[in-house]
Amino acid sequence: MIPKLHYVSQGKTPAVHLENIQKACSAGIELVQLDLGSFKKAARLKLAEDVQGITSHFQTRLIITADYQLAKTIKADGVYLEKTDASPTLAREQLFPWQTIGAGAHTLQDCESLLKKEVDYIGLGPFRITDDTETNPLGLNGYTAIAEALSTETPVIGFGSITTDDVKDIIPTGISGIAVSQEITADFNLIKTYNQLLNASSTQEMRHSFEKL
Question: Is 203 contained in some domain?
């Protein structure tokens, strides 16, 4: 099942990523999305393997950003693809049947296209504008309009500088869950707060399964 709270890892070095992911898992996160950023190929493999050692210990799901080939190599739980990454259709052909594919979207049209490609979940954002935002923020109105138009059981995960203060207003829009990076990295104790707000425990997750067939 797909948890409602995703932690997108941060860190300028592999060591910082590992430290942050260790803290996130210790604090109860159920899904880690490893953002490999600009690390070179050899460093990516080593980091992914080291992270998997941590997530496996805590029985936390591990999603690899962008690099579906690496996700297959280490047998991660799945991959998350941005619009500029490989097509979910191509990734599906390469991955194991049990591996999950999430994909990023910024508009209703993006979401509709991804649903046709049978992704397991959609990351929708940004919720609000940030320093590196290249597309218009969707806000509560955008989330509501898109969720209503889609009318899908495929989980839609909001992202883009979301904070604990936003959760109570985001969930009624029809968004299934949220992906958080900066605020959790600043205070890993907030994972418990997020889980309480999202009602996201290990027994209360969403419908699409991560379980290996």
Answer: no
Can you give the residue range of the structural domain that contains 69? 5-198
Summarised one tens digit per residue, pLDDT across range 133-143 is 568 899 999 99
What is the 3-class SS of 85-145, one letter each residue?
CCCHHHHHHHCCCCCEEEEEECCHHHHHHHHHCCCCEEEECCCCCCCCCCCCCCHHHHHHH
- Is 204 within the bounds of a domain? no
22-73 pLDDT tens trace: 999 999 999 999 999 889 888 999 999 999 999 999 999 999 999 999 999 9
Residue 119 lies in a domain: yes
pTM for the whole structure: 0.91
Provide the CATH number for the domain around residue 61.
Answer: 3.20.20.70
Query: Helix, strand, coil % (nearest 5) of the chain?
Result: 40, 15, 40
